[in-house]
Write a structure and sequence with these properties.
Strand content: 15-25%
Bound molecules: adenosine-5'-diphosphate, magnesium ion
Distance between the termini: 25 Å
Number of strands: 12
CATH architecture of the largest domain: 2-Layer Sandwich
Number of helices: 12
Low-confidence stretches: 334-346
CATH class of the largest domain: Alpha Beta
Radius of gyration: 20 Å
Largest sheet: 5 strands, antiparallel
CATH topology of the largest domain: D-amino Acid Aminotransferase, Chain A, domain 1
């Protein structure tokens, strides 16, 4: 099969702008794309780099693409992750991962919280602040400390060490920073949950299953107010410890797994996802967000780190995602050549 890859490159987003710009934070580097191409070749297929933008439509037909492996984050709006899946669906091309609606629902953190709540899954109390005229209401009914986040970003974009606010004054200054950095984007103000943080990998369809659970902890005990901010994510090698199968009481672990699978189903996710939780000091879990388009860098992406610590090779993880997508489209027996060594657990 000819498998196209859709993606956004960091290099392209950063052209001509200052180094601290966050625009390319979620985008991929070329090493990730090359790594995915290698796996596709090892599975007996031909990879074709499609990139991003309206041009992919013409490339798909010129290059006779049979299937697309999609990791494109897109640019410009809360529909950005939905652009490529929509185009592929219109063109009748099967692709990996969730569809446009799921990606859009999960990307908008405020819409996502409404779905999470309606599903009976606990998530921190919050308010939406849509613009400066609503700032006076930003902490109404909420308990400090609070955290501010732009609604439609990922990879901790707009989430800084200073985003945790203990007072209205601190909250106001976080809000005005976000209004200037992310103009036109509503801000999510959420109760900050003190306690442990875990992320879960999910893989499969009908039924999906939990691939593993990983705790994110502070490697340098110096930082008291540690959370997975943009600054911390950028210096993950130095600042973060990743531990799979953390010591979590049995009932709580089952509850977290149940909530993550519930969210996967409720959002209509396909093939893969990652779900972030905080666990309060009282051992109550709170779902922060579900990521139906998690990063797949073999170096720094949480899902890949988690899978590796659970015994999966990178090739095994990627081929399993492709396998899941192929199964959905009934493609399993039409051309795929699984390598039993690469496929599945090591
Ligand atoms: N309500 C919260 N309480 C405590 N920490 C939070 C909360 N919301 C976010 N964080 C911290 O900020 C990080 C990024 O937030 P998240 O909602 O997962 O956004 P992103 O899409 O950027 O990953 C989390 O991994 C966590 O460390
Ligand atoms: Mg997150």
């Amino acid at each position: 099969m000819r498998i196209g890859l859709t993606y956004n490159l960091k290099e392209e987003a950063l052209t001509g702008v200052s180094a601290d710009n966050e625009a390319g934070e979620e985008f991929d580097n070329i090493a990730t794309i090359e790594g995915l191409c290698e796996v596709i070749v090892s599975l007996g297929h031909e990879p074709v780099k499609l990139g991003f933008g309206l041009g992919i439509l013409e490339k798909i037909s010129r290059e006779k693409i049979d299937f697309v492996f999609n990791i494109a984050e897109g640019q410009g709006s809360r529909n950005r992750e939905s652009h490529v899946p929509s185009i592929l669906e219109m063109a009748g091309i099967p692709y990996s991962g969730s569809d446009a609606l799921t990606l859009g629902l999960a990307l908008d953190k405020i819409v996502a919280k409404k779905i999470i709540r309606a599903a009976g899954v606990p998530t921190p109390a919050y308010r939406q602040v849509s613009g400066p005229s609503e700032v006076y209401l930003s902490d109404k009914g909420l308990k400090y400390p609070l955290i501010t986040k732009p609604s439609w970003e990922g990879s901790s974009k707009g989430i800084y060490n200073s985003s945790k606010a203990y007072t209205k004054k601190e909250l106001d200054s976080s809000l005005s920073l976000l209004f200037s950095k992310y103009p036109g984007q509503p801000i999510l103000v959420e109760e900050y949950i003190e306690g442990r943080e875990v992320t879960l990998g999910i893989i499969g369809n009908n039924p999906a299953s939990v691939l593993g659970i990983m705790e994110i902890t502070n490697r340098s005990s110096k930082e008291k107010d540690f959370f997975y901010s943009l600054q911390v994510k950028r210096r993950w090698k130095e600042l973060v410890n990743y531990t799979v199968n953390p010591d979590i009481p049995g009932n709580l672990l089952e509850e977290i797994k149940y909530y993550s699978l519930r969210a996967f189903k409720e959002f209509g996710c396909r093939d893969l996802a990652r779900v972030d939780f905080k666990i309060s000091r009282e051992n109550k879990p709170y779902l922060l967000e579900i990521n139906p388009l998690p990063g797949l860098s073999c170096e720094y992406s949480d899902l890949v780190i988690l899978a590796r610590q659970c015994g999966w090779k990178y090739e095994g993880l990627i081929s399993e995602i492709i396998n899941q997508a192929f199964c959905r489209y009934g493609l399993k027996n039409s051309g795929i050549k699984f390598n039993p060594v690469l496929h599945g657990k090591v």
